[in-house]
Amino acid sequence: MNPDHRLPFSEILRVNEIGAGVTRRLVPDEAVRGRIIKALDLASLKSLESEITVTPAHIGWTLSGWVRAEAEQVCGITLEPLPVSVDERFSVDLVEEADAASEVEVTLEDDSPDVIEEGRIDLGQYAVEQFALALDPFPRKPGAEFVQPEEPAEISPFAVLKQLRAAQDGKS
Predict the structure, then answer these.
(1) Which of 127, 103, 91, 104 is nearest to 12 (CA)?
(2) How far apart are CA 18 and CA 57, in angstroms?
(3) DSSP label of 117
(4) Contact status, residue 127 vs residue 52, Cβ threshold 8 Å
(5) 3-state DSSP call for residue 67?
(6) Mean pLDDT of the chain
(7) d(CA 58, CA 64)
């Protein structure tokens, strides 16, 4: 696998490890935080931790937990670092591929369960995904405003000729 295409944080849990339920605490190291910074286009990521519990549900499983982080996004106007604190709880329903095909109708419009592929749940990806969902997609420092640059009065090639002609007439 090309290292540029790998997931920024991967912590695999196999379905056969869940039993009556399992809880994992995830704290990525500095190298992993560096990949998350790159993947999410952050200025920095001081800390990221998550606790995720997977328990059996009526159909499939429920993945729930929290994610906390201290990071800096880049202001979309000033390009300066913008501190952000994340403390979010989440819950996601999960089903296996066979259950998704036979018992659950999966659509894009509603909160359909996520499908578990090959009996593996990537807890690290869920932690990063929930962190990303908590970030402002258009970060802006308080008071920062975008000012539209003025459009030139005339954009035609004849406007340039008119300016040259005026400059030549002024020299004569």
Answers:
(1) 127
(2) 12
(3) B
(4) yes
(5) strand
(6) 85
(7) 15
